From TrEMBL, chain A:
Assigned protein family: Belongs to the universal ribosomal protein uL13 family.
Keyword match Cytoplasm: no
Name assigned to this protein: 39S ribosomal protein L13, mitochondrial
GO MF terms held by the record: mRNA binding; structural constituent of ribosome
GO terms (BP aspect): negative regulation of translation; translation
Source organism of the structure: Lottia gigantea (Giant owl limpet)
Keywords annotated in UniProt: Ribonucleoprotein, Ribosomal protein
Lineage, opening ranks: Eukaryota, Metazoa, Spiralia, Lophotrochozoa, Mollusca
Automatic annotation (TrEMBL), chain B:
Segment forming the signal sequence: none
GO molecular function, one term: structural constituent of ribosome
Gene Ontology biological process terms from the UniProt entry: translation
Name listed for the protein in its UniProt record: 39S ribosomal protein L20, mitochondrial
Superkingdom per UniProt: Eukaryota
Membership in a protein family: Belongs to the bacterial ribosomal protein bL20 family.
From TrEMBL, chain C:
Family membership: Belongs to the ribonuclease III family. Mitochondrion-specific ribosomal protein mL44 subfamily.
Listed GO CC annotations: microprocessor complex; mitochondrial large ribosomal subunit
SMART domains recorded: RIBOc
Lineage: Eukaryota, Metazoa, Spiralia, Lophotrochozoa, Mollusca
Molecular-function GO terms, alphabetical: double-stranded RNA binding; ribonuclease III activity
Top-rank lineage group of the source organism: Eukaryota
UniProt keyword annotations, A-Z: Mitochondrion, Ribonucleoprotein, Ribosomal protein, RNA-binding, Transit peptide
Places the protein is found: Mitochondrion
Subcellular location, principal: mitochondrion
Protein name: Large ribosomal subunit protein mL44
All residue ranges annotated as the RNase III domain in the record: 70-202
Example of a GO biological process term: mitochondrial translational elongation
InterPro entries per UniProt: Ribosomal_mL44_DSRM_metazoa (IPR044444), RM44_endonuclase (IPR055189), RNase_III_dom (IPR000999), RNase_III_sf (IPR036389)
Length: 192, 153, 363
């Protein structure tokens, strides 16, 4: 009795997935996340039926871009009024909201139909790995990462560093670490 | 002057032309599924119906394309569930003389998942025997473990 | 040309003398037809549908040939006398007798001393229901007797038999008092036909008819849904106890979206550390009940993947054990707990095994 009903329930149940965005390309990972949001990983997929899953993305603060795309990648926005066009570079948007870059790329990857907003509501973005318990409780499976997480130079031990072949030593007054220009700090204050 | 000509001049002609209700009924029949005044109002109805008839000339090929694409998406999903590449899966079926077409494979994947799984297992075993097996879609890195993250449950 | 004009004028003159000549419609256009049809359609709506009439009220009706062809259609070579007896109901004879009495003729001379089909129907029904039971017991040897009874009840129900009768073309041939026909009349006629087969051709031929027409109604039906088990977990415990296997242990296999409305739990039932059934459900409790049902299905071998019923050509050399009786669920439960009427309490105690999971402790 009613066994077919529960089978139906299990077939159309929404699974919750977790995705670690640390050191991941936001475009490549958006492609993979969009598959799960649409339900394209299920053999019962149909573009008109709403059978997508939930995806929880953690560590969105740690996403990466290749070359100097942080500087070159631009987000355009127009208010609709005269002179309302604005261009924001990726690093600035990331500074304003650390989940925004992933959200925008997933939104762009999803098909532009009426289901898009509903699918976006099933995407849960978190800047770090502090996920509320009521969300983490639902998660049953994970989506594998898109790229290999690189090992930072700080993570290498001194022995490994010594064993590595070296062509030259940096001069003592050379600053390897990234330093922001003064102008940028001023803009940041202005924005806040 | 001929007599017939004289008669024909005064011949009663059909009043008001032919009966237009048949033509209207035809359009009404074609417009049953439209909404609002497109369905009820003849002058709007006729435009919509003619556009629909024009569109229907290419909908045949469009439908085929759509279902082909849908079939591929579904089978790719079903194959990746069991860790096979879709194209390799089809190749191995062909090489082993398993004569099931894509439509039936899709139906098997949805309604008889265990049967489809056994087909996938067969495909994987064949690929392993011939040393051409590559795992599908699942990257071997980037695994979250419960120890590294916050405890999940 | 002139001839046609003349004839046209003639018609016009006969129809309505007052129509002016200028408005005479041309012959080809039939301008009034659509209007006429519309009026007819509207008047049909106001009047309502035509009452049902028996086929014999129309022309081209030959009762003898219809009855003859009915026998031929089914591939049975019965003689016409017994076939006519099959379709003759008592109510028809009584009505005719009353008519004759009203006319003042003695009943004895009217030729209405013929037999009606009641006796045939009785024997036919007995044969059919007996054969269905025997067949089902042999087809599902591990299923409970109660389940077999409920499948039998479904097959011999009025709806199913009436449906068969209608598709065989029985209703048009029935001679009875009431019209439109009652369902029970069609059923008795069908049973009378089986009785006639038994009488004329022997038991085996009648069995073949039942196997060909009544038993195929099971195709595509879920036989597990016909018998409603109230407490599947209790029954499962009793069955496992009867088979001297370990008690059932429900375990959580997977859960998903557990803090939302769309939660799903998969629960498997183990006995002696072997998985004997599993099912999903909205809550852990529902899933556990469904898993128990699934386990019962597997134990009775009535799951979806069972082999198909032997019907048609496959059943030509079928040998059925007529004396076979299946195990009754009631007996098993009484053996397990002879004092308690059902094993309803056992389900609670089993639920207590389930301590490892937080969600079930709430339940």
């Amino acid at each position: 009795m009613a066994n077919n009903r529960v089978l139906q329930w299990a077939t159309f149940a929404r699974t919750w997935w977790i995705f670690d965005a640390n050191h991941q390309c936001h475009i490549k990972s958006a492609k993979r996340i969009a598959l799960y949001l649409q339900g394209k990983h299920k053999p019962i997929y149909h573009p008109l039926s709403d059978i997508g899953d939930h995806v929880v993305v953690i560590n969105t603060a740690g996403i990466s871009m290749r070359n100097d795309f942080w500087r070159k990648w631009k987000y355009n926005h127009h208010t609709g009024y005269a002179g309302g066009h604005s261009v924001t570079s990726a690093w600035r948007l990331h500074e304003l909201d650390q989940t925004k870059v992933v959200e925008k790329s997933v939104y762009a990857t999803l098909p532009g139909n009426l289901l898009r907003r509903r699918m976006m509501r099933r995407l849960h973005l978190f800047t770090d790995d502090n996920v509320p318990d009521d969300i983490l409780q639902n998660v049953t499976d994970q989506i594998r990462q898109v790229t290999v997480v690189p090992r930072l130079i700080q993570e290498y031990t001194q022995e490994e560093l010594d064993a590595m072949p070296k062509l030259f030593d940096w001069p003592d007054d050379y600053e390897i670490e990234f330093k922001r220009r003064k102008e940028d700090d001023e803009i940041k204050k202005y924005l806040k | 002057m001929h007599l017939t000509r004289q008669v024909l001049r005064n011949l009663p002609t059909p009043y008001g032309g032919y009966d237009i209700s048949w033509k209207r009924q035809m359009y009404k029949r074609l417009a049953w599924h439209f909404f609002g005044r497109r369905r009820t109002c003849f002058r709007i109805q006729i435009r919509t119906v003619e556009r629909a008839l024009r569109n229907s000339t290419f909908s045949g090929s469009a439908r085929k394309e759509f279902f082909k694409e849908l079939n591929t998406t579904r089978l790719e999903a079903a194959c990746s569930e069991h860790g096979v590449i879709y194209k390799e899966f089809l190749k191995t079926l062909d090489e082993n003389d398993v004569q099931i077409n894509k439509t039936m494979l899709e139906k098997l994947a949805i309604y008889e998942p265990r049967t489809f799984q056994s087909l996938c297992d067969m495909s994987i075993q064949y690929q392993k025997d011939n040393e051409i097996y590559t795992k599908n879609s699942v990257t071997p890195y980037g695994e979250l473990t419960r120890g590294l993250q916050k405890p999940m449950l | 040309m002139s001839a046609s004009i003349r004839s046209g004028l003639k018609v016009v003159c006969f129809r309505k003398l007052l129509i002016p000549l200028q408005q005479v419609p041309s012959r080809c256009y039939k301008k009034g037809l659509s209007k006429d049809l519309r009026i007819q359609y509207k008047s049909r709506l106001t009047v309502g549908p035509e009452p049902d009439r028996h086929r014999s009220e129309f022309i081209n009706w030959n009762y003898d040939s219809e009855v003859y062809s009915f026998g031929k259609r089914l591939g049975e070579d019965l003689n016409d006398d017994i076939l006519k007896k099959v379709f003759l109901h008592r109510s028809y004879i009584e009505r005719e007798k009353k008519k004759i009495q009203e006319l003042g003729i003695a009943v004895g001379t009217s030729g209405l001393d013929v037999d009606h089909n009641e006796q045939l129907a009785k024997s036919g029904e007995q044969l059919a229901s007996n054969y269905v039971l025997i067949y089902l017991r042999n087809a599902f040897p591990n299923y409970f007797e109660e389940g077999i009874r409920s499948i039998h009840e479904y097959l011999m129900s009025e709806d199913v038999l009436c449906n068969i009768g209608r598709h065989l073309g029985i209703p048009e041939l029935i001679m009875c008092d009431d019209f439109p026909l009652r369902e029970s009349t069609i059923v008795t006629t069908l049973m009378a036909f089986i009785g006639a087969l038994e009488q004329e051709k022997g038991k085996e031929r009648a069995h073949l008819f039942v196997r060909d027409f009544i038993l195929p109604q099971l195709i595509g039906k879920d036989i597990n849904e016909m018998w409603n088990v109230v407490n599947p977990m209790g029954l499962l415990t009793a069955v496992l106890h009867f088979q001297k296997r370990g008690l059932p242990e429900p375990r959580l296999l997977w859960e998903g979206a557990s803090s939302t409305l769309m939660s799903v739990y998969h629960i498997g039932i183990y006995s002696d550390q072997k998985l004997i059934g599993k099912a999903p459900g909205e809550t852990a409790q529902i899933a556990e009940e469904m898993a128990a049902r699934d386990a019962l299905k597997r134990l009775c071998q009535t799951q979806e993947s069972r082999p198909a019923l032997l019907l048609g050509k496959l059943s030509e050399n079928l040998k059925l054990d007529e004396k076979k009786v299946n195990i009754s669920a009631k007996d098993i439960i009484e053996q397990f707990s002879p004092k308690e009427s059902t094993a309803s309490t056992s389900s609670k105690s089993i639920f207590g095994i389930f301590k490892g999971n937080h969600s079930l402790n709430k339940v």
